[in-house]
Design brief:
Elements (H helix, E strand, L loop, with lengths): L7 E9 L10 E4 L7 E5 L2 E7 L3 E6 L6 E5 L5 E3 L2 E8 L9 E2 L7 E2 L8 E4 H6 L5 H5 L5 E6 L3 E6 L7 E5 L2 E2 L18 E8 L3 H4 L6 E7 L6 E10 L3 E12 L2 E12 L17 E13 L3 E17 L3 E2 L4 E22 L4 E22 L5 E3 L6 E17 L5 E15 L7 E17 L2 E12 L4 E13 L3 E12 L3 H5 L1 E3 L4 E3 L7 E16 L2 E23 L2 E26 L2 E12 L8 E14 L4 E10 L3 E3 L5 E4 L2 E12 L4 E8 L6 E7 L11 E4 L5 E9 L1
Parallel strand pairs: 1-8, 14-17, 34-37
Antiparallel strand pairs: 1-4, 2-5, 3-4, 5-6, 7-8, 9-10, 11-16, 12-13, 14-15, 16-17, 18-19, 18-47, 19-20, 20-21, 21-22, 22-24, 23-24, 24-25, 25-26, 25-27, 27-28, 28-29, 29-30, 30-31, 31-32, 32-35, 33-34, 35-36, 36-37, 37-38, 38-39, 39-40, 40-43, 41-42, 42-45, 43-44, 44-47, 45-46
Length: 721
Amino acid sequence: MALHSKATNLLLEVKENNSGIFLNEANLRVLNKSGNLTIERSAAGFILKNVYYPVRIKCSFAGYESRTLLIQKKDVESIGEQDHMIVYLERSVTQIGDVVITGQVTPLLAKQSVYKVNTVSASEIAQRAAVSLNDVLNYEMNNFVANDNLLGSSVNIGGIGGQNVKVLVNGIPVMGRENGTIDMGQLNLNNIKRIEMIQGPMSVMYGSNALGGVINLITATPKKKFSVSGRSYTESIGRYNFSANASAQKKNHQLQLSVARNFFYGWTPKDSINRFQLWKPKTQYTGDLQYWLSFKKLKLNYFASYLSEKITNKGEPIVNAYEGYAFDEYYRTNRMIHSLAATTDLTKRDQLTFTNSFQTYKRTKNRLKKDLVTLNEFETMSVGDQDTTRFYDLNLRGTYSSTRLKNTNLLLGYEYARETGVSFKLTDERQIMSEIGVFSSAAYTIKAFQIQPSIRVSHNNRYKTNVTPAIHAKLDIGQKTQVRGSYARGFRAPTLKEMYLQFIDQNHTIIGNLDLKPEIGNRVEIGLDHQSRILQTPFGYTVNISHNSIQNLIALAVFNNHGVLRRYDNIANYKNWILSVKGNMTIANLSLNAGTGMIFVENTNITPQHTIFECTVLGSYKLKKLRSSVNINYKFNSRQPVITVDQQFLYTSPLHIANVSLQRSFFNKAIQAQIGLKNLFNIQNASLSGTISSQNSPHSGSGAMQLFPARSFFVDVTCSL
């Protein structure tokens, strides 16, 4: 091959493939060095001087897969008298450090983040045989997942309810709250490469509903010119799931499609032919489409996500001398997300990002009377039997980030959110809430110390202008230890339902409250992270202490001492202390993560003083000769507090949950198979006990909370091409 006739200079930038983070400490070696070619390291990357094409290089960095490239003149971009090229490195599957993006000015390693970010990787998701987000959160510290057969799974983080947890997909807020929370069971994990979680107020970065924390699901990006994968999941209690992914890339185009069907036959502990099932049959269809288009300094991304869910609640037969019939209910949910994002590099130090999304959410309830002889059915006409609720959400977000100032990463941004609710259960059947905010953050680093003050000023059309400050700091003690401290203020405006709901059926009367005050939260936290080696064994631990205080906590309260009539109200100032300790280590073929925690809740006018304990053990042992691994996930929760809609304060019984499984790969990892047991201890419900706080309550002070169906056997197989 003929050499290019003229020598030139070539600037090579080395970046992480998925996040685009600069890997300034990477190593570069020229394999066919000739002439006077020299290499200089600069702040912008590597400068190869006196290059004749083609030139072969090898680029490597700890924790990433090395790359060897043959660079030809056609592969580079000429800018003035200098050529330019970007080399992307893939992260090694054995790398412990994670690159995080949630709440960051720029993507960076988790240990470099001023926030304490907890990540769950794709391999950890697979190790738990997780299908939806609740399968992952069940085994996370400071999380408690509650299940409702009709409203879905809700998560409590650090003693703070799901109405204060913001759920994101690729940074896009997910809408569709029922009873104030997003259903974790509706968030399918097909094609999710990483879950990032930040506990505590993130209202500066993400606005209202982020008072308790943020959960961000990040989808995978294409890594090959063309790839196809499929997954089949079967569980003995009647779950039959299938999903498929396909991706392709050519030059500056990337396309990815993910589809899934999740089917649950339903389950009941009764060994009979009764049509009624305690755990309701459910069918889900999901689909995600992503398209990327890259120019020189501009990258566009279109993301679409679709969910269709049907829950069937068949009633028990009613038989008399004249007829046999039953009342059946069908709950259907549809959610559609459209998002268009653009990122452009104004200069090497300045970047603009825009993320605009529009979502629609529809939930219908139909109640039918079914003749069990003729099988004819017709709609019942009682109040609340037929219901359709629609919500529409527009979210516009833009940020400007810069590293132009010395030792400083600057972020400026705006966000506009508009939610429209349409339902006969809302006053005037149509209500709108909008909020606009501007925010800024500056991460300043001096030697081993980093401090990041942030502030958001927002205006809600129902409330006054709100100022939300935060300050985070991190000190690196050598390379192995980081100390973090923070103060953050949170804000949550009451939802449209909490203000305008007028729900009446045979058993309930629930009304909204226009006089509700916003919830205001304050959190102080300090934590220590340490990673080291003991006799060549990687070992690390984390210690965190935090204090939460929430004013004007919103909840359903009995109205005027009437046990059936309930109204949303500001009923408490909630305060708690959280202590958690987590450790991880790898000994030969054994990887182990364990943690223990305590939540101490101070006395309020609706909750007595109480303490919650928990511990987790997540382990994996590799059988190298068999190319297999044995996995175990275990979590213990002490009694959990439950506040009923009529202000009873109850406790669940202590809970032990566990999964065990065996994983094996075949045909050079083209097939990944896993078999195992879920709900190893066969925990199906938790008994409730406590005292009745309302003398006029028609309910007893004890009962049970449904948690899981019976112990089950599962088979999980993934094939990739």
